[in-house]
Automatic annotation (TrEMBL):
Glycosyltransferase subfamily 4-like N-terminal domain sequence ranges: 18-119
Pfam families hit by this protein: Glyco_transf_4, Glycos_transf_1
Keyword Transmembrane: no
Lineage: Bacteria, Pseudomonadati, Pseudomonadota, Alphaproteobacteria, Hyphomicrobiales
Protein name in the entry: Glycosyltransferase involved in cell wall bisynthesis
NAD as UniProt keyword: no
Annotated Gene3D superfamilies: Glycogen Phosphorylase B (3.40.50.2000)
Length: 364
Protein backbone atom coordinates (compact mmCIF):
# COMPACT_ATOMS: atom_id res chain seq x y z
CA UNK A 1 0.00 0.00 0.00
CA UNK A 2 0.96 3.65 -0.42
CA UNK A 3 0.45 5.22 2.99
CA UNK A 4 0.84 8.77 4.29
CA UNK A 5 1.56 9.16 8.00
CA UNK A 6 0.92 12.70 9.26
CA UNK A 7 2.60 13.40 12.60
CA UNK A 8 2.47 16.29 15.06
CA UNK A 9 5.32 18.77 14.71
CA UNK A 10 5.96 19.37 18.42
CA UNK A 11 8.59 16.60 18.51
CA UNK A 12 10.62 14.77 15.92
CA UNK A 13 9.84 11.18 14.91
CA UNK A 14 11.11 9.58 17.05
CA UNK A 15 11.43 12.22 19.78
CA UNK A 16 14.79 12.92 21.36
CA UNK A 17 13.24 12.82 24.82
CA UNK A 18 9.54 12.97 25.83
CA UNK A 19 6.84 12.56 23.19
CA UNK A 20 4.43 9.64 23.09
CA UNK A 21 2.48 10.33 19.89
CA UNK A 22 5.52 11.01 17.72
CA UNK A 23 7.18 7.90 19.13
CA UNK A 24 4.25 5.71 18.11
CA UNK A 25 4.07 7.30 14.65
CA UNK A 26 7.76 6.51 14.20
CA UNK A 27 7.43 2.89 15.29
CA UNK A 28 4.40 2.36 13.05
CA UNK A 29 6.07 4.03 10.06
CA UNK A 30 9.24 1.95 10.33
CA UNK A 31 7.31 -1.30 10.71
CA UNK A 32 5.11 -0.55 7.68
CA UNK A 33 8.24 0.15 5.61
CA UNK A 34 9.78 -3.07 6.94
CA UNK A 35 6.70 -4.96 5.75
CA UNK A 36 7.15 -3.60 2.24
CA UNK A 37 4.70 -0.71 2.09
CA UNK A 38 5.47 2.66 0.50
CA UNK A 39 5.23 5.15 3.35
CA UNK A 40 5.56 8.92 3.28
CA UNK A 41 6.05 10.58 6.66
CA UNK A 42 4.95 14.19 7.09
CA UNK A 43 6.81 15.33 10.20
CA UNK A 44 9.48 17.72 11.47
CA UNK A 45 12.62 17.92 9.34
CA UNK A 46 14.86 16.51 12.08
CA UNK A 47 12.95 13.23 12.09
CA UNK A 48 14.83 10.00 11.32
CA UNK A 49 13.00 7.52 9.12
CA UNK A 50 13.40 4.95 6.37
CA UNK A 51 10.22 6.32 4.77
CA UNK A 52 10.10 9.34 2.46
CA UNK A 53 10.26 12.34 4.80
CA UNK A 54 8.31 15.48 3.94
CA UNK A 55 9.29 18.15 6.50
CA UNK A 56 6.53 20.33 7.92
CA UNK A 57 9.13 22.46 9.70
CA UNK A 58 12.89 22.42 10.01
CA UNK A 59 13.13 21.16 13.58
CA UNK A 60 10.71 19.96 16.25
CA UNK A 61 8.65 22.95 17.36
CA UNK A 62 9.08 22.31 21.10
CA UNK A 63 12.81 22.69 20.61
CA UNK A 64 12.49 25.93 18.60
CA UNK A 65 12.35 28.86 21.06
CA UNK A 66 11.16 31.35 18.42
CA UNK A 67 7.94 29.42 17.79
CA UNK A 68 4.97 30.74 19.75
CA UNK A 69 2.08 29.21 17.79
CA UNK A 70 2.27 25.73 16.27
CA UNK A 71 -0.96 25.94 14.24
CA UNK A 72 0.48 27.84 11.22
CA UNK A 73 3.12 25.14 10.76
CA UNK A 74 0.55 22.37 10.92
CA UNK A 75 -1.68 24.18 8.43
CA UNK A 76 1.23 24.56 5.98
CA UNK A 77 1.96 20.85 6.35
CA UNK A 78 -1.69 19.97 5.77
CA UNK A 79 -1.73 22.06 2.62
CA UNK A 80 1.15 19.94 1.28
CA UNK A 81 -0.61 16.72 2.33
CA UNK A 82 -3.75 17.86 0.50
CA UNK A 83 -1.77 18.74 -2.62
CA UNK A 84 -0.30 15.22 -2.71
CA UNK A 85 -3.36 13.35 -1.41
CA UNK A 86 -4.03 11.47 -4.65
CA UNK A 87 -0.62 9.80 -4.42
CA UNK A 88 -1.74 7.68 -1.47
CA UNK A 89 -4.12 4.81 -0.89
CA UNK A 90 -4.71 5.96 2.67
CA UNK A 91 -3.87 9.04 4.73
CA UNK A 92 -3.34 8.40 8.44
CA UNK A 93 -3.52 11.49 10.66
CA UNK A 94 -2.16 11.78 14.21
CA UNK A 95 -2.74 15.51 14.76
CA UNK A 96 -6.18 15.49 16.39
CA UNK A 97 -8.66 17.63 14.45
CA UNK A 98 -7.12 20.37 12.29
CA UNK A 99 -7.40 18.31 9.10
CA UNK A 100 -11.12 17.53 9.25
CA UNK A 101 -12.53 20.44 7.20
CA UNK A 102 -9.76 20.08 4.59
CA UNK A 103 -10.19 16.36 3.94
CA UNK A 104 -13.89 15.76 4.46
CA UNK A 105 -14.50 15.13 0.75
CA UNK A 106 -11.99 12.25 0.78
CA UNK A 107 -12.67 11.13 4.35
CA UNK A 108 -13.27 7.57 3.13
CA UNK A 109 -9.52 7.30 2.37
CA UNK A 110 -8.44 8.76 5.72
CA UNK A 111 -8.23 7.61 9.28
CA UNK A 112 -7.40 9.68 12.35
CA UNK A 113 -5.95 8.18 15.51
CA UNK A 114 -6.96 10.20 18.53
CA UNK A 115 -4.04 10.12 20.96
CA UNK A 116 -5.32 12.46 23.68
CA UNK A 117 -8.07 12.80 26.23
CA UNK A 118 -11.57 13.20 24.79
CA UNK A 119 -13.49 14.40 27.85
CA UNK A 120 -12.84 18.10 27.23
CA UNK A 121 -16.13 20.05 26.83
CA UNK A 122 -15.20 21.76 23.55
CA UNK A 123 -14.67 18.45 21.76
CA UNK A 124 -18.21 17.10 21.93
CA UNK A 125 -19.80 19.75 19.64
CA UNK A 126 -16.87 19.44 17.21
CA UNK A 127 -17.14 15.67 16.83
CA UNK A 128 -20.94 15.94 16.68
CA UNK A 129 -20.46 17.94 13.46
CA UNK A 130 -17.58 15.88 12.04
CA UNK A 131 -19.15 12.54 12.93
CA UNK A 132 -18.52 10.87 9.58
CA UNK A 133 -14.71 10.81 9.49
CA UNK A 134 -13.14 7.43 10.40
CA UNK A 135 -11.54 7.52 13.85
CA UNK A 136 -9.30 5.14 15.80
CA UNK A 137 -9.14 5.06 19.59
CA UNK A 138 -6.08 3.85 21.47
CA UNK A 139 -8.22 2.23 24.17
CA UNK A 140 -11.91 1.49 24.51
CA UNK A 141 -12.08 3.61 27.65
CA UNK A 142 -10.88 6.64 25.67
CA UNK A 143 -14.15 6.57 23.72
CA UNK A 144 -16.50 6.99 26.68
CA UNK A 145 -16.99 10.81 26.58
CA UNK A 146 -17.53 10.97 22.81
CA UNK A 147 -20.81 11.54 20.96
CA UNK A 148 -21.74 8.96 18.26
CA UNK A 149 -18.93 9.02 15.69
CA UNK A 150 -17.48 6.76 12.99
CA UNK A 151 -15.15 4.51 14.98
CA UNK A 152 -13.02 2.39 12.64
CA UNK A 153 -11.47 0.45 15.52
CA UNK A 154 -9.34 0.47 18.65
CA UNK A 155 -5.61 -0.10 18.21
CA UNK A 156 -3.40 -0.46 21.26
CA UNK A 157 0.10 0.96 20.98
CA UNK A 158 3.00 -1.34 20.19
CA UNK A 159 6.79 -1.23 20.54
CA UNK A 160 9.62 -2.90 18.60
CA UNK A 161 10.59 -6.08 20.41
CA UNK A 162 14.29 -5.14 20.45
CA UNK A 163 13.77 -1.56 21.62
CA UNK A 164 13.96 -2.19 25.37
CA UNK A 165 15.86 -5.30 26.51
CA UNK A 166 14.45 -7.72 29.04
CA UNK A 167 15.97 -7.49 32.53
CA UNK A 168 15.54 -10.69 34.55
CA UNK A 169 16.15 -8.96 37.87
CA UNK A 170 15.66 -5.51 39.37
CA UNK A 171 19.29 -4.69 40.03
CA UNK A 172 18.55 -1.17 41.26
CA UNK A 173 16.09 -2.06 44.01
CA UNK A 174 14.06 1.13 43.51
CA UNK A 175 10.61 2.16 42.33
CA UNK A 176 10.34 4.22 39.13
CA UNK A 177 8.12 7.08 37.97
CA UNK A 178 8.51 8.04 34.30
CA UNK A 179 6.71 10.65 32.24
CA UNK A 180 5.62 14.18 33.03
CA UNK A 181 5.30 16.22 36.21
CA UNK A 182 1.64 17.22 36.25
CA UNK A 183 -1.33 16.99 38.65
CA UNK A 184 -3.09 14.30 36.60
CA UNK A 185 0.01 12.05 36.56
CA UNK A 186 0.21 12.32 40.39
CA UNK A 187 3.94 12.12 41.13
CA UNK A 188 2.93 13.16 44.66
CA UNK A 189 1.20 9.80 45.03
CA UNK A 190 4.31 8.05 43.76
CA UNK A 191 6.35 9.75 46.48
CA UNK A 192 3.80 8.79 49.14
CA UNK A 193 3.75 5.16 47.93
CA UNK A 194 7.53 4.86 47.98
CA UNK A 195 7.74 6.45 51.43
CA UNK A 196 5.00 4.14 52.74
CA UNK A 197 6.74 1.07 51.32
CA UNK A 198 10.15 2.17 52.59
CA UNK A 199 11.72 2.00 49.12
CA UNK A 200 13.76 4.51 47.10
CA UNK A 201 11.99 6.25 44.22
CA UNK A 202 13.59 7.61 41.06
CA UNK A 203 11.59 10.16 39.05
CA UNK A 204 12.48 10.65 35.38
CA UNK A 205 10.16 13.31 34.04
CA UNK A 206 9.92 16.61 32.24
CA UNK A 207 8.38 19.75 33.71
CA UNK A 208 6.35 21.77 31.20
CA UNK A 209 5.93 25.50 31.68
CA UNK A 210 2.23 24.95 32.39
CA UNK A 211 3.14 22.71 35.33
CA UNK A 212 5.97 24.78 36.77
CA UNK A 213 3.86 26.06 39.68
CA UNK A 214 2.82 22.49 40.56
CA UNK A 215 6.49 21.51 40.59
CA UNK A 216 7.57 24.50 42.67
CA UNK A 217 4.75 24.35 45.21
CA UNK A 218 4.03 20.61 45.55
CA UNK A 219 6.56 18.19 44.10
CA UNK A 220 9.93 19.82 44.73
CA UNK A 221 9.21 20.34 48.46
CA UNK A 222 8.14 16.68 48.75
CA UNK A 223 11.35 15.53 47.10
CA UNK A 224 13.43 17.67 49.45
CA UNK A 225 11.56 16.21 52.43
CA UNK A 226 12.35 12.60 51.42
CA UNK A 227 16.08 11.82 51.05
CA UNK A 228 15.30 8.53 49.29
CA UNK A 229 13.57 10.33 46.38
CA UNK A 230 15.78 11.19 43.38
CA UNK A 231 14.69 13.48 40.55
CA UNK A 232 16.54 12.72 37.30
CA UNK A 233 14.71 14.88 34.74
CA UNK A 234 13.98 13.93 31.14
CA UNK A 235 15.75 10.85 29.79
CA UNK A 236 16.35 9.45 26.31
CA UNK A 237 15.66 5.97 24.93
CA UNK A 238 19.04 4.54 25.93
CA UNK A 239 18.67 5.83 29.48
CA UNK A 240 15.09 4.57 29.62
CA UNK A 241 16.14 0.95 29.12
CA UNK A 242 18.44 1.07 32.15
CA UNK A 243 16.08 3.20 34.23
CA UNK A 244 13.07 0.90 33.76
CA UNK A 245 14.99 -2.36 33.55
CA UNK A 246 16.68 -1.89 36.93
CA UNK A 247 13.47 -0.86 38.73
CA UNK A 248 11.53 -3.22 40.98
CA UNK A 249 8.29 -1.73 39.65
CA UNK A 250 6.93 1.22 37.73
CA UNK A 251 4.45 3.38 39.63
CA UNK A 252 1.59 4.66 37.49
CA UNK A 253 -0.62 6.49 40.03
CA UNK A 254 -2.71 8.47 37.54
CA UNK A 255 -5.70 10.62 38.47
CA UNK A 256 -7.25 11.19 35.03
CA UNK A 257 -8.79 9.17 32.15
CA UNK A 258 -5.46 8.08 30.64
CA UNK A 259 -6.07 7.26 26.94
CA UNK A 260 -3.34 4.59 26.87
CA UNK A 261 -0.18 5.11 28.93
CA UNK A 262 2.80 4.19 26.76
CA UNK A 263 5.14 4.01 29.75
CA UNK A 264 3.25 0.96 31.04
CA UNK A 265 4.20 -1.18 28.04
CA UNK A 266 7.72 0.27 28.01
CA UNK A 267 8.15 -1.06 31.54
CA UNK A 268 6.60 -4.38 30.57
CA UNK A 269 9.05 -4.71 27.68
CA UNK A 270 11.85 -4.59 30.28
CA UNK A 271 10.09 -7.21 32.40
CA UNK A 272 9.29 -4.58 35.02
CA UNK A 273 5.81 -4.92 36.55
CA UNK A 274 3.49 -1.94 36.86
CA UNK A 275 1.51 -0.77 39.88
CA UNK A 276 -1.27 1.33 38.40
CA UNK A 277 -4.39 3.08 39.63
CA UNK A 278 -7.74 1.95 38.24
CA UNK A 279 -8.30 4.83 35.81
CA UNK A 280 -8.63 5.23 32.06
CA UNK A 281 -6.98 2.51 30.00
CA UNK A 282 -5.28 0.72 32.90
CA UNK A 283 -7.75 -2.19 33.01
CA UNK A 284 -7.12 -2.81 29.29
CA UNK A 285 -3.33 -2.66 29.48
CA UNK A 286 -2.38 -4.36 32.77
CA UNK A 287 -3.19 -8.01 33.40
CA UNK A 288 -3.71 -7.83 37.15
CA UNK A 289 -1.49 -10.29 38.97
CA UNK A 290 0.57 -11.05 35.84
CA UNK A 291 2.10 -7.85 34.42
CA UNK A 292 1.42 -5.83 37.55
CA UNK A 293 -1.20 -4.86 40.10
CA UNK A 294 -4.22 -2.60 39.69
CA UNK A 295 -5.04 -0.62 42.83
CA UNK A 296 -7.63 1.89 43.99
CA UNK A 297 -5.71 3.96 46.52
CA UNK A 298 -2.31 4.67 47.98
CA UNK A 299 -2.73 2.11 50.78
CA UNK A 300 -3.38 -0.67 48.24
CA UNK A 301 -0.41 0.54 46.20
CA UNK A 302 1.90 0.23 49.20
CA UNK A 303 0.62 -3.32 49.77
CA UNK A 304 1.20 -4.09 46.09
CA UNK A 305 4.82 -2.97 46.40
CA UNK A 306 5.28 -5.54 49.16
CA UNK A 307 3.98 -8.25 46.79
CA UNK A 308 5.89 -7.20 43.70
CA UNK A 309 8.50 -9.98 44.08
CA UNK A 310 5.74 -12.57 43.59
CA UNK A 311 5.43 -11.58 39.94
CA UNK A 312 7.54 -13.35 37.31
CA UNK A 313 9.43 -10.77 35.23
CA UNK A 314 9.67 -13.25 32.35
CA UNK A 315 5.86 -13.42 32.26
CA UNK A 316 5.70 -9.63 32.28
CA UNK A 317 7.91 -9.57 29.20
CA UNK A 318 5.90 -12.38 27.58
CA UNK A 319 2.70 -10.38 28.06
CA UNK A 320 4.32 -7.44 26.28
CA UNK A 321 5.39 -9.62 23.36
CA UNK A 322 1.95 -11.19 23.02
CA UNK A 323 -0.10 -8.01 23.27
CA UNK A 324 1.97 -4.90 22.60
CA UNK A 325 4.48 -5.54 19.82
CA UNK A 326 4.82 -3.14 16.88
CA UNK A 327 4.03 -6.03 14.51
CA UNK A 328 0.62 -6.46 16.12
CA UNK A 329 -0.01 -2.70 16.00
CA UNK A 330 0.86 -2.55 12.30
CA UNK A 331 -1.40 -5.54 11.52
CA UNK A 332 -4.29 -3.87 13.29
CA UNK A 333 -3.83 -0.63 11.36
CA UNK A 334 -3.45 -2.42 8.02
CA UNK A 335 -6.74 -4.19 8.66
CA UNK A 336 -8.39 -0.82 9.28
CA UNK A 337 -6.80 0.72 6.17
CA UNK A 338 -8.01 -2.10 3.93
CA UNK A 339 -11.55 -1.81 5.25
CA UNK A 340 -11.86 1.92 4.58
CA UNK A 341 -14.50 2.48 1.90
CA UNK A 342 -12.27 4.72 -0.21
CA UNK A 343 -9.33 2.33 -0.11
CA UNK A 344 -11.54 -0.44 -1.45
CA UNK A 345 -13.20 1.66 -4.18
CA UNK A 346 -10.97 4.62 -5.12
CA UNK A 347 -7.34 3.61 -4.62
CA UNK A 348 -7.02 1.51 -7.78
CA UNK A 349 -8.65 4.27 -9.86
CA UNK A 350 -6.22 6.86 -8.50
CA UNK A 351 -3.25 4.64 -9.30
CA UNK A 352 -4.40 4.15 -12.88
CA UNK A 353 -4.88 7.89 -13.24
CA UNK A 354 -1.35 8.45 -11.95
CA UNK A 355 0.02 5.96 -14.49
CA UNK A 356 0.66 3.19 -11.95
CA UNK A 357 -0.44 -0.42 -11.69
CA UNK A 358 -3.10 -0.90 -9.03
CA UNK A 359 -1.76 -2.69 -5.99
CA UNK A 360 -3.82 -5.84 -5.53
CA UNK A 361 -2.75 -5.99 -1.87
CA UNK A 362 -4.91 -2.97 -1.18
CA UNK A 363 -8.04 -5.16 -0.90
CA UNK A 364 -6.31 -8.36 0.17
Amino acid sequence: MKIAQIAPLAESCPPRLYGGTERIVSYLTEELVHQGHEVTLFASGDSLTSAELVPGCQTALRLTPSVRDTIPYHMMMLDEVRRRADEFDVLHFHIDLLQFPLFRDIAHRTVTTLHGRLDLPDLKPFYSVFNDLPLVSISDDQRRPMPPVNWAGTVYHGLPRNLLPFSAEAKGGYLAFLGRISPEKRPDRAIEIAAGAGMPLKIAAKVDAADRAYWDEVIEPMIKAHPSIEFIGEINERQKAEFLGNAAALLFPIDWPEPFGLVMIEAMACGTPVIAFRRGSVLEVIDDGVSGFIVDDTHQAVEAVQRIATLDRAKVRHTFEQRFSVERMARDYLSIYRNLAGVRTDAAHLRRRNGENPDLQIVA
